[in-house]
Amino acid sequence: MFEIELSDTSMFKAAFEAISTIVDEIICVIDTEGFRVTALDRSHISFVNLDLHPTVFDTFECNVPEKITIDTAEFMRILKRMKNSDTLKLTMDEGNLIIKLIGDADRQFKLRLIDSEYDIPQPPQLEPPVSVVVPSDLVKDCLTDMALFDEKLYFMIDEDYFKVITNGEFGEANAAYLHGEDVNEVVKSSFSIPKLQEMFKASKFSDMCEISLGNDMPLILTFKLLSDDGQISFLLAPRLEAEE
Amino acid sequence: MFEIELSDTSMFKAAFEAISTIVDEIICVIDTEGFRVTALDRSHISFVNLDLHPTVFDTFECNVPEKITIDTAEFMRILKRMKNSDTLKLTMDEGNLIIKLIGDADRQFKLRLIDSEYDIPQPPQLEPPVSVVVPSDLVKDCLTDMALFDEKLYFMIDEDYFKVITNGEFGEANAAYLHGEDVNEVVKSSFSIPKLQEMFKASKFSDMCEISLGNDMPLILTFKLLSDDGQISFLLAPRLEAEE
Amino acid sequence: MFEIELSDTSMFKAAFEAISTIVDEIICVIDTEGFRVTALDRSHISFVNLDLHPTVFDTFECNVPEKITIDTAEFMRILKRMKNSDTLKLTMDEGNLIIKLIGDADRQFKLRLIDSEYDIPQPPQLEPPVSVVVPSDLVKDCLTDMALFDEKLYFMIDEDYFKVITNGEFGEANAAYLHGEDVNEVVKSSFSIPKLQEMFKASKFSDMCEISLGNDMPLILTFKLLSDDGQISFLLAPRLEAEE
Lengths: 244, 244, 244
Known about the structure:
The first copy, chain A, has 244 residues and is α+β, with helices and mostly antiparallel strands. Chain A has helices spanning 10-22, 72-79, 136-147, 193-199, and strands spanning 2-6, 25-31, 34-40, 46-52, 59-62, 66-71, 87-92, 96-102, 106-112, 130-135, 152-157, 161-167, 171-178, 187-192, 208-213, 219-224, 230-236. In chain A, strand 11 and strand 12 form a beta hairpin. Chains in contact: A-B, A-C, B-C.
C-alpha cells in the first residue's frame, strides 16, 4: 500500500499527457525508490520511461511495493480535471486507484485497476554518441513548423548547431539552434513527426530537453526536473529509408 | 409599453444562457414589479423562474404591463453579441422586441414577437427541508468531474458537508464541501447531470448558489444577486430509481 | 533579386489573412518602389491591392525588379507559424521564395514559385463620392452582428452617421456610428456580408479604416498604416437587386 501527495502537479500532468497518447495501459511501480512507469507503444516504435523519486512528492509513504495496471485514457481524464492549485493524492484499495484532488472542495475519484500479468518491458540499452540540451518549446514549435511540409524530418547535430530539416512536396524547411556544447562530429537521423509530437506533449515537464542522437539510430529524448530527482525519457526508432 | 436599461449586463446574459438551453419559447412579463420569466421545459423535468426587480435596472419605465413571447434562441444570439461595456436597452413596438446595445456604436436589433395564448406555468409549491449555500463555480466544476463517470449523480447534505457522488462503469467519484451551516439531518436525492449542467449555465449570475434538498424530492437551486433585488431559481425533478 | 526584412510582422500577417481568403494565387511585385500585390477574386466580385513602401521594412534591397507568383494558402500556413517577436526575412533563389523567421531559433522555409504568365489585373478606376473613417474593429463587430439576420447588408452614410443595416427573416438590425466628418449627401449600397468578412480579416492592419461609398456602386475599403507608407485596399462590387 502507498499514500503519496504532490503539490507541483503540472509536471505530473504533462508526463501523462504524453504517456496516455503513446500507450493505452501502463504498469505503475510504486516502491521505496519512487513512482515509475515503463511502457512500449503498440507499434514498438517508441518507448517511454517515467521515474519520479520519493523526494519529488510532498508525502511519499509506501510500506509494501505495489505494481498496478491502469487505463491511461481514464487516468488522464481525471488528471485533466485537476487545477494548478489542487494537491494530488494517490492511494489505493483492493481494486481501485484512489485519486484525490484537494482544493476548495475535496474531490475523490476511484479508478478500477486492470488485471494484467504481462511483464514490464525492458528498454534497449543504447548510448547515442552525441547529446545536446535544447529549449523544449523551441523543438516543439519546430515540429509544428515542419509538419506543414512533411510527416518526417531529420534531426542533425554538428559542431555548432542542432538542426531540424524537412523536405516535402510543396517546399522545404529547416531550423537551426546554436547549442553551445562541445561536439566534434556530425550525426543525423530521420524520425516520424507525429511520433515526436506525441513525446513533446510532455514538454511542460521541464523547460529544457536533452536530445541524444547518432547516425540512423534511435533518438533518446529526456526531460529532467531541475531538482534532478525525476525525469521522463523517450526512445524513438529512426525511419530508415533506402531512397533517401 | 416599457423602456428598460441595464448596464450590469453579465448577470442578464448568464440568466438567458440557462433559460435558452432549457426552453425554446418564453413569456416575459414586464410590469411595475419588474421583469419576470417563468418557464417549464418540454419534458416537464425542470422549471425556471427569473425575477428582476425594477431597482436592478438603470432605467425602468413601464406604464402598461406587458406580456410578450419570444424565441429564446434568437434572443440569446443577440445577447451574445453584447459586450461587457455595452448598455442594454429593451423597448417594443407593435410586433417586435427592440434590443439596443449601446457602446462605441449603437446597435439596434428587432426581434419578432411570437403570438401565443398559453398560460404562464405555475411552479409546484415545495419546501425542501435542508438548504446550504455553496460557491457556484465549485458545484459547476463538480458536475464536469462527475460527468466523466456517469450521467446521474447524488446531491447529499449531512451535518457538515455538501456532497456530490457518482458511480459509473469505469470508476466512481465524490466531492465534499464543508458547508458551515446548522444542519441536523441527512438528505439525499439523485439528479440528471446534463439537466444540472443546463441550470449551471447561469452560474455567473452570482458567486454563490443555494441548494435546497430533501430525500428523493425535487432540488431547488437559487442564484441571488448580492443586492437582493433579483434572482434566478430552478426546480429539478429527482431521478427515482427502484434499484438504486 | 531582393532581400527584405520586416520586424513589425503583424500587419503583414493581417494583410495575407485577407488575401489568402480572397485569392488562391497572387503575383507579388518587388521593385525599388516596394512590395505590391494586386489581385482579383475568382468570381470577379472583389479586388485587393497591397502596397508597402520600402520604408515599411527594416531592410529593403532590390537590385532587379522581380515578379513572382505564389500559392497564398501555402504562404499563409508559413506566416501563421511566425511569432510576434520573430523577424521576417524574404529572399528568393531560382525556383523558390525563401522565408526566414528569425527568433530563438532561425527557421527557414522554401516555397516553390508557380509558373504563370497571366497579367496583373487592373482595378477599375472609381471615385465613390463619400468617404468616412471608422474604427476597424467596430465595423468588423457589426458584420458579425448583422450576419445573425441575413447574408447581405446596407452600408449608408448620411450627414451625421455611418450606418449598417440588415433585415432578415427573424428580425432586423442596424448600427450607427457618428462619423464627425463633413458630409453633405446620403449614399447607400448593399453588399455581401461574407465578402465583407473576408476583407475585414485584414482589420489588424490598422485601427481605422476608410469606407468610400456611393449609391449602388462598389465599395472601396482602405486600411492605411499610421506612418502612411503602406496600405491595403479592397474594392467590392455592390449587390444590385431589383426588388429591394
